[in-house]
Amino acid sequence: MLELSIDWPSLFSAFQMNMPELRCFFCLDDGSVLKLPPGSPELESVRKESKRYVPVEVIPSRIQYQWICDFTATLDEDGARSRVEAAINGKGAFRRFKDILLTMPEERKQWFDYRDQRMRSRIVEWVGEHNIIPLNPAPWSDDGIPEEAPPTPAETEIIATISEWAKSSPNAASLSPDDLQALADAIDQHLK
User: Fold this and answer.
1) How far is CA 53 from the centre of its chain?
2) pLDDT tens string 48-104
């Protein structure tokens, strides 16, 4: 077993990649994720170092199709379920599923939440399958539901800076720690 700090957001992003122009590899040295284009000079050397880098493959279509079927079973019987069931039968099911969801905004949002939850659960399983013990927990629970994420290093720095400013500003004394966190979140989002 290998104990490792994992870059969970990058690993989640790699699992969602479905672009032939990028190949993703999980580094067993530091828990990072490499994203390399096909012509990259690093690609061949990374492929040769299989004890150091694990390829991150997209979720097989049969599993993704099962997720779609499971999701469809959760829909209300008000016609939405029957419309989606009709769309996902036969060849071209993925395209028809995407198309039908474009006409159903609420169900489309539910689908993305459902898929992300399943994806997160799959990532945790994948880490275990590769005999990795995470030194840092995933920012979601074992069932894939996002947990309250701790402040990022940038947010922590912003909070500290604002706190210092608040000490010297008479009007800022009324700001609570939650107010400061909300402000830091807003600034961090703006900077991204």
Assistant:
1) 20
2) 888 899 999 888 889 999 999 999 999 987 788 999 999 999 899 999 999 999 999
Nearest to 71 by CA among 38, 104, 37, 32: 104
> Which of 16, 47, 13, 48 lies closest to 33, judged by CA?
13
**How many Cβ atoms from other residues are within 10 Å of residue 98's Cβ?**
12
Residues 111 and 79 in one domain: yes
What is the total count of domains within the chain? 3
Ramachandran angles phi, psi of 37, nearest 5°: -75, 160
Q: Are residues 78 and 96 in the same domain?
A: yes
All residues at 6 or more sequence positions from 122 whose CB lies less than 8 Å from its CB, including other chains: 15, 59, 63
Structural domain range at position 46:
2-58
Query: For residue 127, is it within any domain?
Result: no
The string of pLDDT tens digits covering residues 6-30 is: 999 999 989 887 677 788 999 999 9
Of the candidates 13, 29, 58, which is a domain's last residue?
Answer: 58
| One domain, residues 66 and 41 | no
Judge whether 2 and 29 are in contact, CB under 8 Å.
no
Three-state DSSP class for residue 109: helix
